[in-house]
Specification:
There is one protein chain. The N and C termini lie far apart (62 Å). The radius of gyration is 25 Å and the shape is globular. The chain is an alpha/beta fold. Helix 1 (17-30) packs across helix 4 and helix 8 (159-168) packs parallel to helix 9 (182-188). Among the domains are: 4-13 and 80-221, HAD superfamily/HAD-like (Rossmann fold), CATH 3.40.50.1000; 17-79, DNA polymerase, domain 1. The protein is built from eleven helices and 13 strands.
């Protein structure tokens, strides 16, 4: 049974990616280096962040890098906001009497501002802040608070978080609301990967606070979803999500890609020049098409003579001739945003075969 929860902060409880990205690019610009696109930043950023600095700026003293970063971060951290389902999960932990801790690299000053804005500080029994390498801290947390490893879970959004959980001998859960992609997190081999904290809450509720990994692969449990790098980013900015609108256009149970838009274009708006919109990075209401595939194969063996037999085979691919559409255009600045132009499966195919054995 899970009785203790250790949270990561950035990308798990709050969304600070835009601010961290801007502050990091400020550091690079101060060192006369080219700025990183969002995709490049997400692919290269890692923890401990000293590895990232050593890769890009090995000749700049760390104190100088830290000064540049925190100076700029203070100017842009007003964009930091709570992630969807974070508050509900924290309240769930409180209602169930679970002890909650925070293990994060976030600077104390930044945490003070962000926890005051979100009110999340009151849900945490004890925060451990400014920890560059969490693996070196996890055992201290377990010992200081007398936490039983088998009753403790670490929830984070990066490979380093999963490695930390493994190092401490505790349970691990990766969330897709943060910095690392599904592929990166899968490589770290957490016990469970969830789209967001609401999904983890449902798992714990269904299993009486026990953590049971999904029996099937993530893609089988989840229809395709549009997350970071898909719909909400066009490589340069994130749009604004318009309140009170549905992301998926109304199709009345029928969708014709030749005449209909899959997405409702009015659900997003351009925030304007040099602005980073308020759309969440992982919107559970924005999903692609389900995938259906039914194949069939039948055969019959005929005895022609005592030692001469004939086998007749009939194989049917996509026997019901279903059409599976590929994801719509997900770049909100394109004129074709929301349109579907490609079929992602093959039409029905039939193949016959004869085989003689003697």
């Amino acid at each position: 049974m899970i009785r203790n929860v250790i949270f990561d902060w950035s990308g798990t409880l709050v969304d600070d990616l835009p601010a961290v990205w801007k502050a990091t690019n400020y550091v690079l610009s101060q060192a006369k280096l080219a700025e990183l696109s969002l995709e490049q930043f997400r692919a290269e950023f890692c923890l401990p962040f000293t590895i990232f600095y050593e890769r890009h700026l090995p000749y700049v003293p760390l104190p100088q890098l830290e000064t540049w970063f925190h100076t700029r971060f203070k100017q842009v951290q007003d964009s930091v906001c709570e992630l969807p389902h974070s508050r509900e999960f924290l309240e769930f932990c409180k209602e169930r009497g679970m002890r909650t801790f925070l293990l994060s690299t976030v600077h104390r000053d930044h945490f003070a501002v962000q926890s005051a804005a979100t009110g999340f500080g009151e849900y945490l029994d004890r925060p451990y802040l400014g920890v560059w390498d969490k693996r070196q801290k996890i055992h201290e947390i377990l010992d200081e608070n007398q936490l039983t490893p088998d009753e403790t879970i670490f929830i984070g959004d990066m490979q380093h978080d999963i490695e930390t959980a493994r190092h401490g001998g505790i349970h691990s859960c990766a969330v897709l609301t943060g910095y690392n992609t599904l592929e990166q997190l899968r490589a770290a081999e957490p016990e469970v990967i969830v789209e967001h904290l609401q999904e983890l809450k449902e798992i714990l509720e269904e299993n009486d606070l026990h953590l049971k990994p999904h029996a099937r692969d993530f893609e089988q449990e989840h229809p395709p979803i549009v997350t970071v790098g898909g719909l909400i980013f066009n490589g340069q900015k994130r749009p604004n999500r318009v309140k009170g609108t549905s992301a998926i256009a109304s199709h009345s149970g029928f969708f014709n890609p030749l005449t209909m838009n899959y997405f409702d274009k009015n659900a997003w708006a351009d925030p304007g020049p040099d602005q980073f919109g308020n759309a969440p990075r992982a919107d559970g209401s924005v999903r692609g098409f389900p995938t259906y595939n039914e194949d069939a194969s039948v055969f019959k063996v005929f005895t022609l003579k005592e030692q001469l037999k004939m086998r007749f085979d009939a194989e049917f691919g996509n026997i019901f001739n279903r059409t599976d559409f590929c994801d719509p255009d997900r770049n909100f600045t394109n004129g074709s945003f929301g349109t579907v132009s490609t079929q992602c499966n093959q039409p029905r195919s039939i193949q016959f075969g004869l085989k003689f054995t003697y």
